[in-house]
């Protein structure tokens, strides 16, 4: 497949790029400014575009099989996540490209907490994570209203950290996935595996899913 990846220099984005390349896909990596030599692995086509400007972004998607948005705003700019996601989805709709969105865990129900979500459950999140969690919830709600493009929203578990690629994960929908010890986690490497599995075999059109060990 020919895949356009936004947020390709981020922690998750880099692993998505690596997984896509390892599977033999052609990757176009979008960054706001012209990428410096060596910024991306060999085989990646760099593309400079302001994500918020459809005139710049649509050409990066035209003729592609898939777009993946792994965008994450820096601390203090969390409110920009929804406008960025809106711009990505509108550009993808114009280009006629299916889109996978790397989302957040805010929307997920917490097991054993009577309908509370990661965001609404008292004391579940540290104070430092509240702003990005609220932004991710708003991002998810925006996706639900989007009808012009075929999207899938992929939520991570509570803990998403660098680690090893095992190729194993469990798939869920609206509830936080936990293991036998009550932990909710996955490595960024295996999160990328799950994302590329959905890319190659689409099963969740206009739906949100989650993964975990």
Automatic annotation (TrEMBL):
It comes from the Bacteria. It holds the Pfam family NAD_binding_10. Residues 7-198 form the NAD(P)-binding domain. GO terms for molecular function: oxidoreductase activity, acting on the CH-NH group of donors, NAD or NADP as acceptor. This is NAD(P)-binding domain-containing protein. It comes from Aquisalimonas asiatica.
